[in-house]
Each structure stands twice: as structure tokens, then as C-alpha cells.
């Protein structure tokens, strides 16, 4: 069809070309209305304490129920949200929802010894805004949750944009009782040398390190070194992307504190979380090793 209309020229009416170029603008326009139209929801993925396989908290992950494209995962729209600045509004929404939920979980599971935490991703547009600190202070005052309930996940690349300012912001946030987790650790290039400079409590090892090679190759050695270094710096470690029992077992031998991944549970809706907590409550907070799926 393109040929008939003029050789190699890209024909904007060619359906194939159009569906590719369609992406950006309409999606951006739709995203501007998505919160008001209640299309944005927050899913929660379990984070498990490896030593006893007990649920320790959840990571909040944004989802968008797009009217024509169906449910979009974070990777499909977070980049647009960041470029357009819409991430600020979306991020505020996730923060308030997540804290509201955490307060709800504490009411649902009063017998658990350590209150469940909620870990929320923060992008640079949000962090470097003057009022994020005020916003979080305000939210923490509104939802009466124990100190340490809120964990903010920050990526290393974000910190490197403006290290001095980042350190200052993180210290403020910590003073209000929020914990800081360094997300996607192991994917950047300056990880180790800068680790001690940033005020953080937790390191989240990226799933690429957990996944690659499982127990063979160099990944186990890198994992082992990262966990050891984190512990030397008195930081806890969450391993992302735990997909098999072998992953969990290996990280447990390294004394890695927490695991997160499909083996322990996929991101789930508020309703599914409520059902899970209800089940845990009736089993007196105990949690069995999940059934292995597949072989
Ligand atoms: P992330 O913070 O590193 O989140 C972990 C991602 O890994 C999630 O993807 C999660 O669904 C996925 N995941 C968890 N366990 C496994 C596993 O066992 N195997 C595999 N293959 N994947 C697993 P998701 O939800 O698509 O989020 C992608 C990224 O988008 C997040 O990466 C985070 O950087 C960003 N994001 C998500 N929600 C928010 C948000 O509310 N605000 C901001 N600023 N960013 C967000
Ligand atoms: Mg994260
Ligand atoms: Mg991560
Ligand atoms: Mg990651």
C-alpha cells in the first residue's frame, strides 16, 4: 500500500505504520484523565522474610485499566508519565492509597509481630519537588502507622542526578519515619562506590541478578558479594525476581533478609490482599512454603 502511494515514503495512512505511531499522544491525553476516571489502581506484591517464609510487607505497583487497551503494566506508561510530569500526580495517588492500605492491613492483622510495611516507588520528578517532604509528613500524620511502615524505593540513577540534594531529601524523609530502599541495585555502573554515601536502609537487588543462571555462572558470586557488602554497611537486602524455590533457598543461605517474586506471589489487587490477610489471620499469621508450580 505504501509503495502505491510513493515508493519508500512512509505513508501515514498505512494501518501498520499508524498503529506504531499511535502510541504516544493519545496515551498521554488518556493518562491525563486516568486518575479522575478511576482507571489507575495500585497492586501489591508480597515481600517475604526468607528466614521464616513469613509475609513482611508489599510493594505498591501501579496499574492502568485503559478503556480500549486493557490493563497496562507500569512499564507501558510510567515512562510517559515521567516525561510529561504526570508522574507527580500519579505518584501522590499511589502514596496515599498505599498508606491507607497499610493502615488497613494493620487493622486486619493485629496479631502479626512486625507490622507489614508498604514499599512505594518514587521517581525523580517526585523526589526533587519541594513539597514531597511535606506531602509525606502530612500522609504519615493522617494514617497512624508505626514508624518504618512506609518504604520509599529510589533508583540509583535518580540519586546520581543530583547527589547532594538527594541526600538532603532522603535524610528529611527518614526523619519522619520513612525508610529508604535503593531499587534495581546491580544494574547501574557506580553502585558499589556510592553505596555508603546515600542514606538508605535497604537494598533491592535487581531481578536480573537473581534470575541469570540461577545457581551457576558468576551471578551467585555477585549476589553473595552484594549481600555481604550491604550487611557490612548495616543495610537489609530484598532480592527481587524470586521465581523458584532454588532462588529462595540460595538467597536464604546468604542471609538475605527478604525475597520478592512470582514464587511468593504476583502483584495482587486490594481484594486479593484482603483475602490473603484473612487466610493468614485464621492460620495465626503462619505461612507455609508456597507450593511449587510446574516441575
Ligand atoms: P520495580 O520497582 O523494580 O518493580 C518490580 C517489577 O518486577 C514489577 O514490574 C513486578 O511486577 C516485576 N516482578 C516482580 N516479581 C517478578 C518475578 O518474579 N519475575 C519477573 N520477571 N518480574 C517480576 P511492574 O509492576 O511492571 O513495574 C515495573 C517498574 O515500573 C517498577 O520496577 C518501577 O520502577 C516502576 N513502577 C511501578 N509502579 C510505580 C509507581 O507507582 N511509581 C513509580 N515512580 N514507578 C513505578
Ligand atoms: Mg520498586
Ligand atoms: Mg525493583
Ligand atoms: Mg527492578
From TrEMBL:
- Quick check: keyword Signal in the entry? yes
> GO molecular function terms here?
cyclic-guanylate-specific phosphodiesterase activity
Keywords of this protein's UniProt record, alphabetized?
Hydrolase, Membrane, Signal, Transmembrane, Transmembrane helix
Q: Which residues form the EAL domain?
A: 24-281
Keyword Hydrolase attached: yes
Protein name (database record): Cyclic di-GMP phosphodiesterase Gmr
| Organism whose genome encodes this protein | Methyloligella halotolerans
Source organism phylogeny: Bacteria, Pseudomonadati, Pseudomonadota, Alphaproteobacteria, Hyphomicrobiales
Coverage span on the entire protein = 687 to 981 of 1029
Amino acid at each position: 500500500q505504501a509503495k502505491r502511494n510513493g515508493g519508500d515514503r512512509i505513508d501515514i495512512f498505512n494501518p501498520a505504520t499508524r498503529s506504531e505511531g499511535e502510541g504516544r499522544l493519545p496515551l498521554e491525553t488518556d493518562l491525563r484523565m486516568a486518575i479522575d476516571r478511576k482507571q489507575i489502581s495500585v497492586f501489591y506484591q508480597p515481600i517475604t522474610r526468607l528466614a521464616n517464609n513469613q509475609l513482611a510487607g508489599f510493594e505498591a505497583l501501579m496499574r492502568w485499566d485503559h478503556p480500549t487497551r486493557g490493563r497496562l503494566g507500569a512499564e507501558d506508561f510510567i515512562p510517559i508519565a515521567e516525561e510529561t510530569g504526570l508522574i507527580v500526580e500519579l505518584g501522590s495517588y499511589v502514596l496515599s492509597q498505599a498508606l491507607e492500605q497499610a493502615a488497613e492491613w494493620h487493622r486486619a492483622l493485629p496479631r502479626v509481630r512486625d507490622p507489614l510495611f508498604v514499599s512505594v516507588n518514587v521517581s525523580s520528578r517526585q523526589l526533587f519537588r519541594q513539597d514531597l517532604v511535606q506531602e509525606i509528613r502530612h500522609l504519615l500524620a493522617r494514617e497512624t502507622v508505626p514508624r518504618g511502615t512506609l518504604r520509599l524505593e529510589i533508583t540509583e540513577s535518580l540519586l546520581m542526578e543530583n547527589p547532594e540534594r538527594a541526600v538532603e531529601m532522603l535524610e528529611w524523609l527518614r526523619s519522619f519515619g520513612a525508610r529508604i530502599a535503593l531499587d534495581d541495585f546491580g544494574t547501574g555502573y557506580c553502585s558499589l562506590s556510592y553505596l555508603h554515601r546515600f542514606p538508605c536502609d535497604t537494598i533491592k537487588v535487581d531481578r536480573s541478578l537473581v534470575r541469570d543462571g540461577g545457581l551457576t555462572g558468576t551471578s551467585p558470586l555477585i549476589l553473595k558479594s552484594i549481600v555481604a557488602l550491604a550487611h557490612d554497611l548495616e543495610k537489609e537486602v530484598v532480592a527481587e525476581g524470586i521465581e523458584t524455590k532454588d532462588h529462595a533457598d540460595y538467597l536464604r543461605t546468604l542471609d538475605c533478609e527478604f525475597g520478592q517474586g512470582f514464587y511468593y506471589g504476583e502483584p495482587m489487587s486490594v481484594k486479593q490482599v484482603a483475602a490473603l490477610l484473612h487466610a493468614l489471620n485464621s492460620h495465626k499469621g503462619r505461612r507455609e512454603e508456597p507450593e511449587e508450580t510446574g516441575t
